[in-house]
Amino acid sequence: MTDPVISARDLTVSYTLGRGLLGAKTQLHAVDGISLDIEKGSFFGLVGESGSGKTTLGRALLKAAPITGGSVEYRDEEVSHDLRDLSGAALKDYRKRAQLIFQDPYAALSPRMTVRDIIAEPLEVMGLTKSRAETDERVREIAGRCRLNLEHLRRFPHAFSGGQRQRISIARALVSGPRFIVADESVAALDVSIQADVLNLLRAIQQDMGISFLFISHDLSVVAHTCDHVAVMYLGRLVETAPTRSLFARPLHPYTSALLSAIPSLDPDETSQADKLEGEIPSPTAPPPGCKFHTRCRFARDACKRDVPQLRELAPGHRVACHFTEEFDFSRAPAVAPRRADATA
Ligand code: SF4
């Protein structure tokens, strides 16, 4: 394993909500004791249902959500930052090194700014260039990398399609020279044909510029084609984390297996309804005790309602949080083929 760009240990993000009917304050544990390492230059996928805490985790790693417990460390070739007490000049420096690509390319761009000004804004706000000429040169370089037509820099966002707008968002995220990017459902709002185009661009950026990505998605087939490593999140906790091929070929957690069952299979004879996920994800203000998945797990036993399962490494880099995983076999022919180097390992 190469050095991690992000190391989180027992990371917790919780919010105190208003008083309920009985006057007691409610705690919402959006992220509940997560530890993970994101390797330099990797494409790290984070999956789970809506309400699992993925976005909050991504924002905490950007110091955009409150870190209420544990630690997050960022490290690149030049600096390291402890995110817990980052402020002032150090926070400004981190903003330059860690960026976010939003989900909705329509809402993310100001309709009153030209494409040039949208991409240039982080440079100007952070004071990263000394002259307008230097800013323009940087904007043109990044726009070219994102395959934007340089003749269009004076246009406004409404003139562009969803895919082109997402390229503008990506250029804006890249312009400060980040080493770590959180891409939060960055292709979810796009047509399928455009998704592949944007994913190819993100992978090219990762490989050419050595940027590390946290790629948040509810779509496992997209993650399979894009990511080197995948973590599965449920109700604020990681339940499984593994190299992509390992996770898709042999999921170890019943929740992961159920998510994979929801992907349409390439094999018309395969029936995977046995793993179908029932019910709704519980509220993070009243999470079930023990294994948080026990209210929806068809394998749950009494111990699951009482004891919190910890992540255990059962194969190289493949960790799972389930008391009884050794008794299950969720092996499958992948419905989607994991990609490239990872797929030939
Ligand atoms: Fe299911 Fe129990 Fe494993 Fe949780 S610990 S996933 S409830 S079998």
Question: What's the total helix number?
Answer: 11
CATH superfamily annotation of the largest domain: P-loop containing nucleotide triphosphate hydrolases
Domains counted in the coordinates: how many?
Answer: 2
The count of DSSP E runs of length 2 or more, i.e. the number of strands, is: 12
Order of helices and strands: EEEHEEHEHHHEHEHEEHHHEEH
Kindly report how far apart the N and C termini lie: 15 Å
What is the overall pLDDT average? 89
Strand order of the largest sheet: 6-7-8-3-9-10-12-11
Query: Quick one: CATH class of the largest domain?
Result: Alpha Beta
| Strand content bin | 15-25%
CATH architecture identity of the largest domain: 3-Layer(aba) Sandwich
CA radius of gyration is 21 Å
This entry's quaternary arrangement is single chain
What are the key terms here?
345 residues; alpha/beta; Rossmann fold; 2 domains; 8-stranded mixed sheet; 11 helices; 31% helix; binds iron/sulfur cluster
